[in-house]
Amino acid sequence: MIAQDRLDARHMARAIELAGRGLFTTDPNPRVGCVIAVGERVIAEGWHQRPGGPHAEAVAIAAAGAAARGATACVTLEPCCHHGRTPPCADALIAAGVRRVCYAIRDPNPRVSGGGASRLVAAGIEIRSSVLAAAARALNPGFLSRMERGRPWVRVKLAASLDGRTGLAVGGSRWITGDSARADVQRLRARSSAVMTGAGTVQSDDPRLDVRLPGASRQPLRVVLDTQLRTLPSARIIAPPGQVLLLTASADAARSAALEKAGARIERIAGAAGGVDLGAAMQRLAALEVNELQVESGPVLSGALLAAGWVDELVLYFAPVLLGTDARPLAQLQGIGSMAERLEFAICDLRRVGRDLRVTLRPAPG
Ligand code: AOF
Ligand code: ZN
Fold this sequence. Notes:
This protein is an alpha/beta fold. It folds into 2 domains: about 5-140, Cytidine Deaminase, domain 2 (3-Layer(aba) Sandwich); about 150-365, Dihydrofolate Reductase, subunit A, CATH 3.40.430.10. It is about 30% helix and about 25% strand.
């Protein structure tokens, strides 16, 4: 007999694997997986595929049929208790006659938030929470951030030379990193709800910031922080498939009209010293259900985000080249006068991508 704890962990690991299949498609919903098992034997599996589609539990329950009676369901997120686009999973689990429910993390959605668990308990179902919680959290940094902190999870992607330079001062940062690194960035974009840059980068690099992966089923929202509405209607970011949102402090009606005619959406938000108010931008993006926000910008915006503490994750690609001291810096960070004021990070992941190096960092605690 394998101990119950080990069995739960084993089935939860599989449920987390299943949840990962929704990495590129569930947005703005979380990635969720479910395994229904009796002892060691897996009876059915399910995962949430797309918003509006059935939840992971509903898929697994349908696959299990009558065999779900008396079984254990392992779900990566607390089963929901609300009528959203689909009926409550807690009710479906009760109706299916499962005996136990294990889940990894509580659903911080205020419409659920413990309500799913208490409904199961009230129906006499044994529950166990916090099974492989860290791994389940890691799947959904954006959804959890939006629900728990009211702001997106901010991932800043930067590509630099070994000496931390992102391009020549005269302009032209294409391309520092190789094909493999750029394909890797495409995958990071594809899992993001939105990709954001600044007006300066739109002007100097004219990026598209869209997803060009074969079979990509959704385009992240493209966001430009454009304080003065400098972006031209002919900019490439305005054109490709998907939505473009310009957040501005400008009230220039003529420029707005021309950009809107080209297909962009313009929203005015509060201004602040040096640009639009970053807090107001984050709040607005959270309201638009942006979970993971990927920032691909020049040194000004990345510097501002870093200095103000908005960065949750830094993904740094280092190409094995040197660009020298005349080239542009990684981030414009001024006023660090002592070692006590340095920005400190912890390395979460380090790997070679093609001929380049990828380092994933998070702000060091404290
Ligand atoms: C679950 N299992 O597989 C998912 C859950 O609009 P709806 O009806 O799809 O509801 C979306 C909310 O339901 C989402 O914000 C989150 O709280 C929960 N997602 N819950 O029990 C699932 N995807
Ligand atoms: Zn549900």
